[in-house]
Amino acid sequence: MSTVERFVSLWSQLQPIGRDPATGGYLRYTWSRPYFALRDWFQDQARERSLDVETDANGNLWAWWGDPHAGEAVVTGSHLDSVPYGGAYDGPLGIVSALLAVDVLRWRGVTPERPIGIVAFAEEEGARFGVACLGSRLLTGELTGERARALVDSDGVPLARAAAEAGLDPSRLGPDKARLALIGAFVELHIEQGRLLSNRAGGEALPLGVGSGTWPHGRWRLEFTGEANHAGTTLMPDRHDPMVTCAYTVLAANKQARLAGANATVGRVAVAPNATNAVPERVTAWLDARAADQSTLDDLVETVVRHATRRAARDGTTVSATTESISPEVRFDEKLRDRLVTALGGDVPVIGTGAGHDAAVLAGAAVATAMLFVRNPSGVSHSPAEQATDADCAAGVEGLARVLADLACR
Ligand code: HGY
Ligand code: MN
Ligand code: MN
After folding, report:
1. With contact defined as beta carbons under 8 Å apart, do 317 and 241 qualify?
2. How remote is the CA of residue 82 from the centroid of ligand 2, in Å?
3. What atom in ligand 1 is closest to the CA of residue 217?
């Protein structure tokens, strides 16, 4: 079988898991039933390849080719969880490609001198507990076990309980320096969440790119509080409506981001009491803001909060802003980056991204880290419309195999 055929065969096994038939989007929340099916699939696939499987104290899944303690392990992988109604490729493509890259190395008789690991990090999207890259941040110590245990999902389920139901010991959530020290280099393959590769001239060019780094970005919870009242009997001048303050803030975020050449999104809002015929008492909105550099990001968020506060004074409402997660700008290891470009034949673009990744968390913990991007023709992501061609995905498998061979065999 060709690599394309093997990709299509393995990929088709994942498609039905957690897929919403009405939208085609994926609901793969960490430690949910679909997630456990993905975990079982990953572990079965690893065992079929005689890889040693383990789950670490933070719920990250590992599969090892060789003794992980032999030193300078070359680790690849990504995540299996999704945003609500997300696409099929964001995360799982890195896992499937890693399993197939191991197959390619074995067909070619490659015997690595260093251990090769595949990791599926837990809760990369933060879609259930609200903190992105939870599993990798716990591993590196960027997030404490205490803060993680205190997180609660939108149904009020504490993370500690969900983790226990997943077979973990919540008291052991936290930094795992010994495991982190096993990693000599980490390479994450990911679908590009943008169009830099597909816009590139010469469509026949290798559909891969190498990551230069990630933008600084973060999530802020904005809580707007007003006065609940009757929608029918409360005169407009007498209202203190937090929805109005929130709506104004969303428009201000959009305008300020455009002015700053940055990105600002409010894609999640919670309203209390959330009744059609009641002026709300409270509106909570989550701001996702990103920019090419830290000072632009800081200015953007500060400006948005200032506009919100000014509007709240006019509406007789209040607003508070709480930082929920922050990801600083990350530049990937330049030597490793250039080594990937060489291993892939040289004619490979180096591209930045506004998306966050576990790779950026590991890079922030001084692990030599790189990213390999696979062309996304539309650039769309975090949507059921996310798409990559089988041929491009197979090129990603081949490219990852070349990179792993280069890193683990020299
Ligand atoms: O939000 C992000 O950039 C990533 O998909 N978690
Ligand atoms: Mn994502
Ligand atoms: Mn991702």
Report:
1. yes
2. 7
3. 3
Residue range 163-208, pLDDT digits in tens: 999 999 999 999 999 999 999 999 999 999 999 999 876 655 679 9
Identify any residues that bridge with 86 across adjacent strands, giving them in sequence order. 26
- Ligand nearest to C-alpha 267: 1
Asked whether the CA dihedral 374, 380, 382, 386 is positive or negative, the reply is negative
User: How remote is the CA of residue 90 from the centroid of ligand 3, in Å?
Assistant: 5
38 CA from centroid of ligand 2 (Å): 17
Q: Which of 29, 85, 125 to mutate to test the pocket of ligand 1 (most atoms within 8 A of CB)?
A: 125
Contact 206, 394 (CB under 8 A): no
CB 404 within 8 A of CB 225: no
User: Could you give the CA distance from residue 289 to residue 308 in angstroms, rounded to a whole number?
Assistant: 15
Question: pLDDT tens-digit profile of 18-39?
Answer: 999 999 999 999 999 999 999 9
Does residue 116 contact residue 72 with C-beta atoms inside 8 Å? Answer: no
